[in-house]
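Hi Prof. W.,

I finally got the Allantoin racemase prediction working! I wasn't sure whether to trim anything, so I left the full sequence exactly as given:
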Amino acid sequence: MKRKILFINPVGHDTWNKEVGEYLSSYKDEETQLEVTSLEAGLPEHLEYNYYEVLIAEKLLHRIKKAENEGYDACIIGCYYDPFLQAAREICEKMIVTAPAEAAMHIGSTLGSSFSVLVVRNKTMPEMKVNVYHHGFGNYLASFRSLEIGVQKLQEDPEYTKERMRQEIKKAVEEDQAEVVLLGCTIQMGFFRQLQEEFQVPVIDANIAPLKYAEFLCELKEKAGWYFSKRGIYEGPQQEEIKKWGIEEYFQVSGMWGK
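And this is what came out:
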């Protein structure tokens, strides 16, 4: 069964769209039609600061709702912070939504009894640690290990990045007893296979994990009818309130919430 999946890089530039799409093309199922997009210019170009993360909220959430209205089966929020994942699931009524950290932790906790997360900078650790516990994987966390390379510089010198990853994975495996390593940024793409062959532990790529998890959740919905429960955490906002308060007009998204 054909399915459409949208991968959103939640930043204000399209630098990585083509590369991410090409990278994932050999990992997607044959029946998956994958599109990679990003947000509009003028928004932050990375989300290393919480302020930047908050600034993209409205554009990201409304792009996700638009994707559902356009008939996409799933949407991936392409940032390891998993920004606004809960809100995205609230506003969707039939489309699957997932994100890298959630997907990587589900996979990593199945492949081993502990994992370390390889992050770009120490700055990112507190929020990512909150996410580990929010997603319910605190007992699996061996450590965070930092490359101290900003997101925008990860691919400038791939050999240097790979060497730093190698150094920190060695510490994670030997000192922290990590059985699995999660790559804590989508721009750490292209390195996982060589590193896992070298260290003989699963190294979970932050682009592949949410793609495969999205396909898995789509299949569960298609074949078993399993979808996000609307009885509690993912209960959606009331369309009557959205209309009454003029939210569509204020944010210039007329028609997004139906008639």
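The mean pLDDT is 96. Does that look reasonable to you?

Thanks,
D.
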